[in-house]
Amino acid sequence: MTPLPLPVVLAALAVALALPVLGWALLARPEAVAAQSRDNLLRGIALPTDTGTGGPGLLARLAGGLTPRGTVARLNRLAGTAGRPAAWPVPRLVAAKLVLALIAGVLGLLVVSGGPSPLTVVMAVAVTVVAYFLPELLLHSRGQERQEAIALELPDTLDQMTIAVEAGLGFESAMARAGANGKGPLAAELVRTLQDIAVGQPRREAYLALADRTGAPDLRRFIRAVVQADAYGVSIADVLRTQAGEMRLKRRQRAEEKAMEIPVKVIFPLILCILPTLFIVLLGPAVMDIVAAFSG
Q: CA-CA distance, 139 to 38, in Å (whole number)?
């Protein structure tokens, strides 16, 4: 029995070592401190003084040491835009990037060693690069979906706040009522903003932090209007009424824009899939008859 080549053995060992790390990155539960802190913030309960747990694990520290600080900061920003999913903390994302790139690189090395060619080398490098940036792409997609959900919920939320303010409630009380009655990401962000104000953060900074966390353009524009109204003493009810009408108009315009894009998107499936089938069904018998007539 011929022994296996050394590159194949090394590649198999690398995959065997990388799979447990990938399993930890994908399946490990969040740290007890992070989970408890998140639950307490959502419930508005003060954090206990005795946590009873330590710092980040060895794998998280190792992955963080091998990753540039700019990449960690970018992941942190993308995670904030995506709502910081509990199953995907930043240390796990950093580890997942390294493990996915390692596995893709080892598999690409196996393919290249089996039949080296320029095409296989380019494909192996491309797959490795895509695997390295895959967590960031998933976070970016999650963040865009969350921003769209916030933009969709914003007009109705502003209508609720307008009614509450005109009924005699203050702006923060109206925000608390809208956050308590809502169920989407915008309601969660409003509740978190009120918690930030409750623990001592200035209102202006809390509002600006809300705009920075979500990254939604419509919400950012509304926050700027609220900050300016608070600075210059403008009636908040007028600001809410104006912003609610503007947001409803923008939501209607976005819906009309998507409706106008449908005919353009249908053209490519129509040309590539439907029309060739129709041509085959309609013109196929005639072409066969013509061929048979000329061949006979």
A: 19
- Helix 69-81 × helix 118-166 angle, to 10°: 40
Spatial separation of the C-alpha atoms in residues 65 and 228, rounded to whole Å:
43
Q: Which residues contact 277 (CB under 8 A, 6 or more apart)?
A: none
Pull the structure tokens for residue 294.
Answer: 């000329």
CA angle 122-126-132, nearest 5°?
A: 150
Amino acid occupying residue 44: G
> What is the C-alpha to C-alpha distance for residues 266 and 261, in angstroms, rounded to an integer?
9
* Res 87: pLDDT: 77
Kindly give, in sequence order, each residue whose CB lies less than 8 Å from that of residue 242, ignoring residues fewer than 6 positions away. Answer: 225
Residue with structure tokens 């419930």? Answer: 43
Using the CB atoms, write b or e for 240-251: b if 16+ within 10 Å: bbebbebbeebb
- Rounded to two decimals, the pTM is 0.66
Task: Encode pLDDT of 250-287 as tens digits.
Answer: 889 888 888 888 888 888 888 888 888 888 888 888 88
User: How is residue 142 written in tokens?
Assistant: 């999650």
At 200, list the tokens. 């001592």
- State the Cα–Cα distance between residues 215 and 235, nearest whole angstrom: 26
pLDDT band at 51 (very low <50, low <70, confident <90, very high): very low
Taking a C-beta distance cutoff of 8 angstroms, is the pair 67, 97 a contact? yes
The radius of gyration of the chain from alpha carbons, rounded to an integer in Å, stands at 28
Secondary structure letter of residue 55 according to DSSP: S
In whole angstroms, what is the distance from residue 236 CA to residue 242 CA?
Answer: 10
Q: How does DSSP classify residue 49? A: S
- The Cα–Cα gap between 134 and 178 comes to 36
Say whether 177 sits in a helix, a strand or coil. Answer: helix
Q: Where are the alpha helices (DSSP H) in the chain?
A: 6-27, 32-43, 58-66, 69-81, 90-114, 118-166, 171-181, 185-198, 203-214, 217-232, 236-269, 275-295
